[in-house]
Every structure is written in C-alpha cells, then in structure tokens.
Amino acid sequence: MGASAASKAPEPTVPKHYSTETLEAHPLHATVTVTRHDSSPEIEVNFQRVGKPVQREGEPLYLHWGIVKNASDNRSVYVRPPKSMWPEGTDPRPGEPSLQSPFTDGGVLSMRFSERFAPAGLVFLFMIRSTNGFDEQWFKRPNGSSFYVDLTGAVSKTELKRRGMVLEEQKKAEEKRHKEEQQRKAKELAEAEARKKKEQAMKEKRSQQAAKYLDDSASADGWNLFKAHEEAYEFGSLFFQVVETAPFPDESASVTRDEMQLEERRIRVHVVSTLSVEGSDIVLHWGVKKGRKGGWHPAPSECRPEDSTAMPDGKAVQTVLKLQGDSGLRIACINNLEKIEDVTGLFSVIHAPNAPHHLQWMQAAKGGDIFIPVIPKRPLPGLNADGDFTDVCVTTLEGIIEREMEYGSWTLMHRYKHASHLISSVIGADETCWATIYVWMRYSQIRVLDWQRHFNTKPRELSSAQLGLVTLLANKFKNVSAIRWLARLVMSCVGRGGSGDLGQRIRDDILAIIRHCRDWGHGSMMEQWHQKLHNNTSPDDVVICDALIVFWEGNGNLSGYWDTIHSHGLSRERMASYEQPITNDPDFRGHIKDTMLWELRRYGALLRQVHLGTDLNSIVERCQGLMDDGCRHEVNNFMYIRNSRSPVLDKLMSVAGARKKVCDHVIFSNSLHDESRRDLIFLDLALESEARRVLESVGGVGHDGTLYSHLVAIQTAAGALMCSEAGLETEHELSRAMNDLDAVIARLGRQGESHDVGLRAAAGMNIMRNVLTEIIDRYGQRLGPVSKCLGLAFNADKNVISTFIEESVRGGPAFSLSTLLRKAGPAVRRVAQLGPYSTIAPLDKETKGPVVVFNKLRECEGANIKRGTVIIANECDGSEDVPKNASYVVIGSTVDVLSHVSVRARNERHGLIACLDESKLAELRGLHGCIVKAQLRGEDFRVEVVDDSARMSPSSGVQSVMKRVKSLGFITPPSGMMTPPGMFAGLKRGKLMKDEGGRLTRRELSERALRALSQKKAALHNRQLGAPWAIRPSEFSDELVGGKSLNLQRLVALGLPSWIKTPLSVAIPFGAMKKVMNFDTNQDLLEEYERLNKQVSAAKLGDVKICPKLRDVIKSLEAPEGLKEALRGVLDDLGCEDIDQTLPNAWVAVKGVWASIWNERAHLARQKLRLDVDDVDMAVLCQRVVDADYAFVIHTSNPVTGDENELYGEIVVGLGETLVGNAPGQAMGFTVRKDEDLDEVRPVIRSYPSKATALFGGDFIFRSDSNAEDLDGFAGAGLHDSLPLFENEVVSINYGNERLTTDDEFRDFMIRGVAKIGVEVEDIMGGVPQDIEGCFKDGEFYVVQARPQV
C-alpha cells in the first residue's frame, strides 16, 4: 500500500487565484491573466496579444502603465510602480508616473512580484512606438478610457491580516505623534503670545514716543508743520514730518514762495521709525528730487544726519536711524534742505540689512519709491485752477511731462509703450485724458519732442511698440464711441508700425542697398544713414528717403535733396544731432542710378508702412482681403479714378463714397479682429489725406464754378467729415445738413439759379457753417487747455502752441469743408443777389475812431472803448450787448434781425452789419488799431483809413489799441459816458429823459420835487406790498405788472378778432420778491443780499463777479405759505392737472425769473444808464405754453429800413424760444407791404431758415415782465429770463422735409396770416408800431405778447 502510494505521480499545482480577461482595443486584441500559486506568495500578471499585428510583423508593442496603490484611491490617478514590479526592458519616463514595458516578439508581457508589494490594481494602455518606420499608435477602451486590472482578489488572507496589523501600528504611532505635535504647538503658541504681548506693548510705547516726538518737533519755537506723512507696514510705521521756519504764503498773499529769501526760511525733515524687522537696524536709503527732475540726486553733506554714508552710485545716501531708549524707536533729522537749489522733495526706501533677504528692502506701502514733498506742488503750466480736469487727467499730464522732460533716456518706443499703458489701464473713457494723449502724440509728430534720447532702439522694437499702440486704439475706436474721433486723431500721429519682420526689414534692406557701391564706407552719407537706421529709425527716415529719391532722379541734384529735407521741417543741424549723426551729403554713382531708384522707392514704401501707416497704395493692397465686396468695389473704383483724368469733383465724390463704405465696415462689422480694424482705419486716414491732396491741388475749387458744382462739392466734403465725426452728435447734424442741401440741389435743377434758390442755398450753407463751427469749437474746448499746458511744459515755440488747434483742424476734413464753403460764398451771394454785407441795424452817419478786433462779440462786453470805435468780431450768438461807444459792429456770422443784439443795437444807435465774405472780413480784421472813417449806406459799408500808424496784430487785444489812441491825442468823452462832459455835473438824483439829440440824460430836480418823488415812491411801494401774491388780467395795472402783461390784457380788452387766440395768463406782481425776502425764514438771505448789493455798488463799472452770488441768494429763498397757495391757484387757473407735483418746479421757475435781474447783461445795461437795481421791478407773467408748430415775431415797422408801411417778420419751427433765445442760425425772414391787399400780396423772402433745432413742449412758462423792458435806451428785452416749467424737447430739423420750406403755398399762407396779425394788433394799439410774438398751432394763430416797437 505504501509502495503503491509512492509509485503515484504528483498532482499538478492548482493556482490559489486565477482570473483571465479579454481586452478589446480595436484593432488590437489581447488577454490578461492574474495568477497566485500556493508554492510561492507571489502574483503573476501575464499579457498576451491575440491575433494579427496591427501595422505589420515586428511592430514594437508596449504597455503604458502605472498602479493604483489602495482600493479606495481614484483609479484615474495612478503612481509609478516600485522597481520590483518592472518587467525586463521597462523604460521609466522622466518626470512622469507612468512606465512603458515592451512585449516579446511573441506578443507576451509578464510581470511577477511579491504579494506584499501588490497594489490594488494596474492602469494601462497599449501603444506602438514610432521607430524603424512604424507609426506611433495608441489603443484604449472603446469608450476612450484606460484599461484597469483589479489585483485585490489575488492577495492572500494572511497578507491581508498582516497589512491590517501594520496599519493599526501606524495608526497608533500617528496618534502619538499627533498628540506630541499638539503639545509642542500649544507651548510654542503660548510663547508666541507672550512675545506678541511684549512686542505689542513695545509697539504701543514706540507709537506713543513717536507721536510725542513729532508733536514736539511740529510745535517747536519758530517751526511750522508743512507736511506729515506715514508709511504703514506689517512691522510698524515710518513717519516723515516736514517743518519750516516760515510758512509759505497762501494763494492770496502778494509774495510767492519762490520770491521769499532763503535766509528767511529753513526746511527740516524728521524721520521717525517704529519698525521692528527681525531685530535689524533700520537704514533710510534716500536722495533729493530737484524741480521736475525724475532722478535721484545726492544730498550735500550739510543736509545729512550723523551716521550717513554716500552711496557709490552718486545718487543716494544711507542714514542709520538712531535708537532712542529701549523701545526700539529710531529717528533721524535731515536739515538745511533749503540750501539745495530747486529742491522739491525727498525720495527714499527702507533698508533692513540684518533681516531675512526678502525683508531687507521695503518700498512705499503702495509700491515704488517713497516721495516726500518739501515745498508745495507746482501747478501744471497753463492750466487754470478751476479748469475742467479730472484727477486722473492731471496725474496723466504730470506723468507725461516727467517722462518727456526729465528722464535721461527716452525714445519713441518708450513713448508708445507708456501711451499703451495709459490707454489700457488708466484713462478709461475720460475725454480730457484722450485729448491729452492726442496732443502728446501730435507734439511728438511735429518734432517738439525728442524721438530718441540716450537709448538705442532696434527697429523691430519700435515697430512692435507702434503696432501694439495702434491695435489697442483700434479696439477703443470700436468700443468707446465718445472718444472715437480722438482715437482716430492719435492713430494719425503714430503710424502703423509692424510686427518684428517689418522692423527687421528696415535693418536688413538698407544693408542690401549700400552693398551696391563699395565706396560707401565709413564716413559716407549712406553709411551714416545705415548706422542711424540700425540704432534708431524714426519718421525722419521717410523724409530722408524721399530726398534721396529726388537726388538720384536729378542725377545727383543736391539742391533738390536739401529742398526736400527743408520742406518737411528737417535741417542739417537736426540730422547732425542724431545719436548716429548724418553730417555728409550723398554722392552720385551714375552706373547704379536705375538700381538705386528702384531700391529707394521700395525702401520708402517700407518706411511709410512702418512709420506712417497711411501710404495709400500699400494700405489699399494690405486691406484687400479685409473689406466686404461693396467696400472693396468703392475703394478700387476710387483708385482707378484717382489715376485717370476724371474731373476733380468726380474724384471727391468717389473718395467720399469709398470712405463711407470703409467707415461703416470698421464701425458696424462684428467679424473684424482688432488687427483688421486697425488697418482699415489707416486706410480711411489715407483716403482722407488723398481727398485733401486732391482739393489742395486745385486751390479748393476744381470745377466749373456753377452754384450746382459748389453745392455738390460742399455736400461731398460734408459726407467725408461725417466719417471723421462718427459716434458724435455732429455726425447726425451733418447728415441733416446734407439732406437740406439735397433739397436745394433738387430745386436748383427745377428752377435754375434763381434768387429764391440762392436764398435757400445761403440758408443751407449757414446750417453747414454752424455745424462746422460747433466742430471747431469742440477742438478748441477739448484740446486748447491741454495743448497750452503740454506746449509750455515741452518748451514748444509760442507760435506752435498758439496755432496748435488751427493746425489740428487744417489737417482734417473740417478744413476741406471750410475751404469749399468759403469758395462757394461769392457764387451763392451772386445768385441770392446779396452783397458782402447785410445790414441788421442801420446807422446812417459817418463816424471816426479806431478799429478793434475780437474773436467773439461777447468778449468785448463791458470793455472800455473810445467813441467811434468800429468793432470787428468773427462770431456773434445774438444775445450780446454792444459797448456803448461803438459806432459800427461788423460780425462774421448771421443773426436774426429781431434778435436781442439786433434790437439793442438799433435802440442804442449802433450800426450792426453781418459780413459773410471771408476775404472782406479778413481785410477788416487787418485794420486792428487803425483810425478809420466808417459809413453805412444801405447795404454798402465803406471804411477809409485815416491813420494806420497804430496798426497791430489782432492778437494784441483792445487795451493796447485804446492806449495807442489816447497817446495819439484823440479827444473822447469820459469813460462810461455817451453824453458830452459836464452833463451830469453836480447831479444827485434825477429822472430819465431825452435831450435834443435823442440821447438819454437826467433832469435835475429841486429838493421839493425830490421829496414829492420820494413820497410817491413810498406810496407805490406800500401798494405793491399790499397786493395779492397773484393777480388775474382784470387786475393788471402799471403799478403791478410790466408791459408784457399790460399789453396782452389791453389787446384782449380792446377786442382781438376771434381767429387770433391768446394764451391763459396770470401774473405774480411787482414787489413779490421783496415781500418774500422780508419773511422771517429768509432774514439771513436778506442780509446777505444787502451786503452783496453794497459790494456791487462799490465795484468798478463792468465788474460782474458778484452777480452769480446775488442770483444764488434769490434762488435760495423759501416760499411763504401764502405764496405757495397763490401758486397753487395760478397752476389751477392755467389748467395744471397735477398741482402737487408741479408746485416745486413752479417755485424754482419764479425764483429763476427774479434772479435774472442780476444777469450779467442786465447789470451792465443798468450801469450803462446809471439805473439802480431798486429802480427795476420784476413781475412774473405765468402762461400755459401753446405747444406751437411754428412761432413768429413781427415788427410792424421795418426796423432795418424804417419804412412804416412795410412789416418785417421772422418764423421758426416749434416754440419761439429758438427765435428770441438766439439759437444758432437764422429764422425765415420776410417783409410784407401793409399798404397792399394782404390776401393777395406777395411776401418777399429775405432769408430762409437755418436753425438746426426746434423746441417743443414745456407745459407752462414763467416770463420776466419788468418795468424796464420798454424803457427808452435800456433795451431791456431779452436781458431777463423766461423759464419753462419743464425742459423743452429739442428736435432736429430736416428742412428738406419741412413744410415751411418745401410747400410754397403753405409758406405764403403762414406769412399772410402773420402779416394780418401785425396789422390788426397795430390798429388796436392806436396805430403805434408793435413788436409782437406769437405762434401757430393746429391751424390757429396765437398772440403771446405785444409791446410798442422800440
């Protein structure tokens, strides 16, 4: 039995664990088998490829794999296996957790490892390596994930038990370690807390000691605190305290700080540190700032505290702050700073030499150097203190000035990079900041600023900076419409730049050019230019290249070379001042002429592309792929017409059409990248430049001179200007003006060059001229202050600063439009049968006096001028006063014949003349300072020069002329008098009257008469105080209301025809304002009012500074309850539907009317007549607004000719405030004969309307109604305000579609109806000529007010 047993064969070993899995990774198939045998505590994993090779036999198949250590771990996060698991030939991947192990040629891969090290599983992929002609190929699961083999089932129970025991031991060890760590941390925390408390106590002690030290130093005898500054850090604070022996004078002092003698003041800086930085010493690393210099300067020895050391760099000093006691407080005292010439402050940083490396140097808490001013900050040059500049703008200006004027090294590249920083991170949409960027770049473009200073810029670096800036500008152009015009202007100054290849080509291509002649070695002009281009290329190189082309075309023509250089603002001196100077002339080599011309023209195109960006041919080629089909067609069509013999007008129309397409594509296309938009903007700039060149080449005309050609050219130029005004209101205004000209051109086609068409063309040109003026004014307002500030700071020539705005405008399409308007003027006046002058207020006498010139008529208000003076003013808005001694006023703009300035000129016997012939106006302006005889005869104004020895530039101003006139011995009456000397001698009080010559004077009164007058005035005052707060028309009297209210009441009482309506009216009578002021709640305001009134009485003639303060006092009045209830009644009578909501606005309007007593013009008018403000009473006429379709004003006696049988009227669209309020442009002016049948009479049109906007709405209006409005000589009309309850709606007018100008039958119906009103009102008022205001609404006529015509 035993033998039998021994003879049996041994049974095969059966695996303890066995698993097989088929792996599908099409087209690869494989199996994986996991095995663990009883004979050994090892696990074997076998991979077997199944089937044919994927690519071909011998393909290198690898397992790309890693392990998941624990069953609870994320299977997608694997780690590198231990080396004991690596199969033979395994490649570790540096820095990666995965391994790659090869299969055998038979497609097998086996790995065997102890179960003690067995992970939870394997994560793997299959791959074929790219080698020996095989392509790299990866194989994953069908769902794209990695394969995973679970090994946990192959681990024995014994091993699992062992692992559990190990984990338990590790857990206990960890708990022990954690407990010990907690105990250690608690101990350290307690120790740290104790240290912290001690340090806090010391910190508080240092702070207290620092505060006491600083207080003592600031209050020391003879010292005054100027500046205190603290830099707070985690470790404590650093204090700077600047004290001085004599405080700088304030703004009101007569002596400036710079005028004070140095020996009268001393400057000291106390430096106090409460810093505690790892026990280190605290060292102040500091230097001095001088003037606007940005760099550090070393302090002289007499300024340095003890323990100070000058640094080797020659710029800074290090001072060890001295310990004070045991608290750690450290101090230093810097003295004698006043001895440093032009000192402005101190720079510093903190150095802690013994602290850890990262704490050894500390800047200001907000970054950068600490700066402590020791004198007040100097204002920026040329900026008014009350200028409209944001803090961001001021900071931007200061930063630009510092970099441009103070940095030792600075180039175009630095300039463009700083501009990019400001635009992207600082200025946002601040329009003044954008104006600053443009002015800065413009001064750079015209070479006021250095293009390169002590720094060599590689061409590719410069072109890259340019390209980055203009690409950023293109982005802002698209996204910030309000600054679009400024972004475009900046781009016009910068040039396109280019990527690195374009910049590098500048260096590479010049090398190719100079190789054509071996003689161009060291010292030759071409070699010098080559060296400059290699170091610092600039826009000057475009000019140099153009000059060289002229040189070679002329077979070595040096004269042509230098003419080209000089014509572009370059000079031999400037070229010699380059870092790489050009001092020699070019030399000619005939055998390479053709080659050089080809090379230089190609090189010039490259330079233009980088520096200018507006070379038309290159930019058109670049943009071909960026334009849509319509845009591309228009641009290419212009390029064809440009090179043809087409008429200039056709070229202008073509380029305008191309610009319109390009601009629309740039603004409205959302598919463009910033880079594409940038290039298209440069295309638009190039087209604009080409249009200007075409126009200038023919002297601004370029057509047959007919009215049609003039109008089409103007319309074309306006369309081009619209492109540059994109995103602004002026864009829409230009569009409407173009529509108006369209209507005129259409009528011209039907009627030919008729008188009526001429008048319509004049109105259309006036509209266009007003829009152009608005654009130019915007340039002046936005760019003027900044250009002056930067110009002064950059030390620009005075002429460059003074002409900056003019030159900026001249460089754009606004100047082209201006040129065309000027050229069209004679043709329009010829057709309209208008001379160079248009009489607004006649003066039929010869006068003698000086000529003075102003830009705006308002500038001469209150000016002290001599009798007989002729005033020439470019602009007049219609609301000005004419200085009393002026004989004639010639203005370069149109105003309504019935505007306030026109009425006042006629009342005060001044001649007022409009001159729209620019050449005539320029001729008159050239007489500034001359003594002339002047006389107006009809529409002919004649001037004869009597003495031109005092002729001056118009910029010299009025005072210099007046002084010169006085020195020449011309006799004039005393200042401020229109009557002969002595007329008012001994006058104490008088009554207004006219002398034989019609001049206003006063009649002396006896003492008895004075007492009687005083008693009468007191009685009137008492009656006014006793009057109700509000009265109805039946209660109107001359003691309670002015002429407006009385005349309207009289018209109603005497019986207007039923077809003439009047608005509902109520009045707040004279004396109401005084009653309100005397209420208890307003006593403080009354006292302030009386105090200010006394100041006005004591002020010089023409001084209006206190007027705004007096208006503010009146506007601050509180309404008594009785007045509030009265206002409720007023609103109720006028039909107000929501009285509670309306009442506050009504009270504001009433106060606004009262406050207008102190309008500057009203105050000057009273001074002119020597009227006291107490002599002027103000009622308020309250009316419901007729929301008119049209408004009109009538003078029933022609105010220009004096013909009593001819009525003169003006009509506007909408409410009459655009007419009486002097809105820009003209009304429709007409005359009608009163002695003809008004149903059949043919009105004579004197002017067609050109006001751009109309007003509608308002609900209720509160009109000024003073007792002085109709006083002879006072010309009170329009001096005081009439205010709507709610702001009127402003609506733009398109006269091409306006019935008043397109429907002749309706126009004549309107005019005849207005004329009939004039005749009816004049008859009712006893045949006295009348000044009437009215309106037309829904087919009905209204009279709003009427008064005797002055």
TrEMBL record:
Homodimer. The keyword Magnesium applies. The lineage of its organism: Eukaryota, Rhodophyta, Florideophyceae, Rhodymeniophycidae, Gracilariales. It comes from Gracilariopsis chorda. The keyword Cytoplasm does not apply. Belongs to the PEP-utilizing enzyme family. Residues 1147-1349 form the Pyruvate phosphate dikinase AMP/ATP-binding domain. Residues 838-949 form the Alpha-glucan water dikinase phosphohistidine-like domain. This is Alpha-glucan water dikinase, chloroplastic. It comes from the Eukaryota.
